[in-house]
Amino acid sequence: MFNLTNNSAILLKFILIYKYYLILGCGLLVILILGAIFRLKKSRTSVKKRGKQLDNPGNLRFLQKMYCSDNEQEALVISSEILPQINKLVHLGEEIRDLLKQIEKKQIHLLAKQTEQPFLTLDERIYQAYKKGLGVAELAAEFGRPKGEVELILNLYKSKLKEGRRL
């Protein structure tokens, strides 16, 4: 038959022998439960930002409920402090977007301009600038070359033109 004193003695002996394993197991179980609770809280308070604007009053109320206490007045004070800052950030973001669009338009315009002109060698660009009336010193400064090199390029270009060769 079933002997309660015998079984309790076996259970007590088991607990005494494996007490550290039981304590460790209980501790791990508690950690697992706390982790699950924390994960559930975090998943409830996570906010999906895609497709939502921050200045939407509904979203601000949701954020107030998440991060503020139950006191309505405190939540309203926080929103009145945050709302102008959020609106300022949104405005700055729009300005940055507009500036980037302007830069892109300028880049497109410059690229279109570059493809219209045939690619010229350094010698040809220096000679064209010389024909426009720039002096040797100005050419050297503009193209980042020494004066002697600019003079040499111009002299070679002039001599080739005198010979009848076209570049």
Multimeric status of the protein: single chain
Number of strands: 0
What is the CATH C level class of the domain at 118-167, in words?
Mainly Alpha
Number of helices: 7
Query: Could you please say which CATH topology of the domain at 118-167 applies here?
Result: Arc Repressor Mutant, subunit A
Quote the beta fraction.
under 5%
**Order of helix and strand elements from N to C terminus:** HHHHHHH
Rg measurement, Å: 40 Å
CATH architecture name of the domain at 118-167: Orthogonal Bundle
Helix content: over 70%
Name the structural class: mainly alpha
Give the terminus-to-terminus CA distance: 116 Å
How would you sum up the major sheet? none
Structural features:
single chain; 167 residues; mainly alpha; Arc Repressor Mutant, subunit A; 7 helices
Element layout with pairings:
Blueprint: H1 4-17, H2 19-45, H3 57-67, H4 72-116, H5 122-131, H6 136-143, H7 147-163
Helix pairs in contact: 3-4, 5-7, 6-7
Characterize the structure shown.
This protein is mostly helical. Among the domains are: 1-46; 118-167, Arc Repressor Mutant, subunit A, CATH 1.10.10. The chain has 7 helices and no strands. The protein has helices spanning 4-17, 19-45, 57-67, 72-116, 122-131, 136-143, 147-163. Helix 5 (122-131) packs across helix 7 and helix 6 (136-143) packs across helix 7. The longest helix is centred in the middle third of the chain and has 45 residues, at 72-116. The radius of gyration is 40 Å and the shape is elongated.
